[in-house]
Amino acid sequence: MKRIVLALLFIFSLSFAKDTASIIEEIVKYDEDFVKHHSKSYFEQFKNKQKPYITLVSCSDARVHTNIIEKDPINKIFAIRNIGNQLLTSFGSVDYGVLHLHTPVLLILGHSHCGAVKAALGDYSEEPFDIIKELDHLFIPLSKLKNKHMDFETKWIKGVQANVDYQVELALKKYEELVKEGKLTVVGAVDDFVGLYGSGEGRIIIVNVNGETNPEKLKKLPIFNKLPKKEKDLIIKRIN
Ligand SMILES: [Zn+2]
Known about the structure:
Layout: H1 2-15, H2 20-36, H3 40-44, E1 54-59, E2 77-82, H4 91-100, E3 105-111, H5 115-121, H6 129-136, H7 139-146, H8 152-174, H9 176-180, E4 185-192, E5 203-209, H10 215-219, H11 229-235
Parallel strand pairs: 1-2, 1-3, 3-4
Antiparallel strand pairs: 4-5
Zinc ion (ZN) binds near residues 59, 61 and 115.
């Protein structure tokens, strides 16, 4: 009996994790706290102009957020989010970050266990039209993997990586001049909260810089000069 009650409580807690009034209360309380801990001068520095240094294209997935990159991302990260961290579905926003705000870094951040990649690897024809439209763009990077025989976990993370590579490729085509002039670096990475790269959970694994994907070559790039070897070995990797 006790077991049944516990099971029912568990199911209940899953389906009603938070009621709407509690969600609104949380938003207001959090903001109250935020206002309390930030002085007028904090807002003064950016109230007239934003000056981010990263244009970020990441997945909308709730498990991926800017606080894994910056404790306080305000005025530092120009963030674009959509399902599958795609450029094609948000090129206007990416242009704004790169061409108007002139961020020196365009970071394309995929993540382990990406639902968009999983869906695009399978049959998503029953999804609503607008979801299909966005997932269709993942066809190109995933087409080579789709019918290959391997365990799904491997195929999934390889798909995430292939998608990041594809997005970097698109960015390089579009912003070729800026990259050549050294004004823009396109970084492809994976937020690995599952720990599939063997570096523990929650690491940002760098898999591609300006189209270079060989980890040994990547480690020699000047942009990693400030990192000790141990750190480079931990975060510059690929699943082949
Ligand atoms: Zn995702």
